[in-house]
């Protein structure tokens, strides 16, 4: 009979507190020190450096588990890139969402040429394992060149205004960037955003489109999925 190792073995705090700290950090626009203060108000004495380590060690695995368990995203993809300045050097955050506002993937790159667009397309297709019905982008020429080679049969709509949905999706990243006083490196930005986007996205329930009863049902389901994902993420 095989036994499953406990991923939280050796930690001073129970798994429930680790889940709570990671959830607070990625679901809300809070700094590590603010999460530390919230936990202290509940009688939990833990340093912000410990919370950082929890986020690095467990957050990414939680995010991957949530991505595996989500329903298949929509077939209409909105793609956009926005500049991110890291240590004085300009980088670009490539992001894709579906028609329901679900974040599909993110990628930090130093260019926004055709090669960069192809790399992002391949990352999207590898992670989702299906092709979209239509993609919507701005008028950047790199999208068209990459699409003709990698997604030749997919409809491509290019417009300055059709892509507003994806441009708005960058707002949570901008808020976190301010709280973190900018990203320290491209690797750190990619690692953080790859964790932050699925967790933050999981709890964006579009409350303005739901009745009170519908919202409570969807909210309870989101929390149940989170508890299940964090409980099973590192087991096995």
UniProtKB/TrEMBL annotation:
- Chain ranges of the DDE domain: 75-204
Q: Which PANTHER family match?
A: BLL1675 PROTEIN (PTHR35528:SF3)
Protein name (Swiss-Prot/TrEMBL): Integrase
Any one Gene Ontology MF annotation carried by this entry is: DNA binding
SUPFAM superfamilies per UniProt = Ribonuclease H-like
Question: Which species is this record about?
Answer: Microvirga ossetica
* Keyword Glycoprotein among UniProt keywords: no
**Which Pfam families does this entry report, sorted A to Z?**
DDE_Tnp_IS240
- Statement: the UniProt record of this protein carries the keyword DNA-binding: yes
Give the UniProt record's GO annotations in the biological process aspect.
DNA recombination; transposition
Q: Which UniProt keywords apply?
A: DNA recombination, DNA-binding, Plasmid, Transposition
